[in-house]
Automatic annotation (TrEMBL):
<keyword id="KW-1133">Transmembrane helix</keyword>
<keyword id="KW-0472">Membrane</keyword>
<keyword id="KW-0812">Transmembrane</keyword>
<dbReference type="GO" id="GO:0009401">
    <property type="term" value="P:phosphoenolpyruvate-dependent sugar phosphotransferase system"/>
</dbReference>
<protein>
    <submittedName>
        <fullName>PTS mannose transporter subunit IID</fullName>
    </submittedName>
</protein>
<dbReference type="Pfam" id="PF03613">
    <property type="entry name" value="EIID-AGA"/>
</dbReference>
<dbReference type="GO" id="GO:0005886">
    <property type="term" value="C:plasma membrane"/>
</dbReference>
<dbReference type="InterPro" id="IPR050303">
    <property type="entry name" value="GatZ_KbaZ_carbometab"/>
</dbReference>
<dbReference type="InterPro" id="IPR004704">
    <property type="entry name" value="PTS_IID_man"/>
</dbReference>
<feature type="transmembrane region" description="Helical">
    <location>
        <begin position="142"/>
        <end position="170"/>
    </location>
</feature>
Amino acid sequence: MTCKGEEALIKTMTHSDSNNGGPIRLRSSDFLRIFWRSSFEQGSWNFERMQNVGFAYIMAPAINRLYPDLNDRKQAMKRHLQFFNTAPIMQSLITGVVLSMEEQKANGLPVSDESINSVKTAMMGPMGGFGDPVWLGTVRPVLSAFAASLVLTGFGIWGPILFFFAWNILRLAFRYLTQMAGYRRGADIINVFNTGIIKNAGNATSIFGTFMMGAI
């Protein structure tokens, strides 16, 4: 069962250009549109399935490109209206992986709906556990403290301006780079989680953040 917002999103699906019988590939323009949409994921947050409508909205340009048949397109949109919730800044990595899997599925490889949703589910928790403490608990407080120190030492408005540009440049660059890394690696990127690199990176960032807060 879908809510009115989900039904409206499905109805927006339009026809795309034919691939002329060759492999269907996402284009640079598709990646940029998906990247732009990722900033608005939280705009349709809901208590039932949280970020599901936002994720489907992000995926819409890719689905339009990959699935010429309108029924296939609707099915793909419904696939991404399942429950989804993670740290917003880490969502782009998951999006990249899902883009890779959707492209494979569109080209006839044996990728099931269940495997796509399973990968999303498997990545939600680790990405949430990494993104919130690193970005919201370390990077942003360090930048805020540095900006505040500039204000207190006489630089006035330059402190908030520096914070605004530094935070958004880091955030947007990270989002785009992780989106493309996820697309290139595909579902194989899940193997990285088993090496402990996510946990170690999170711990190292927290230690660095504590050191910087003390220094500032």
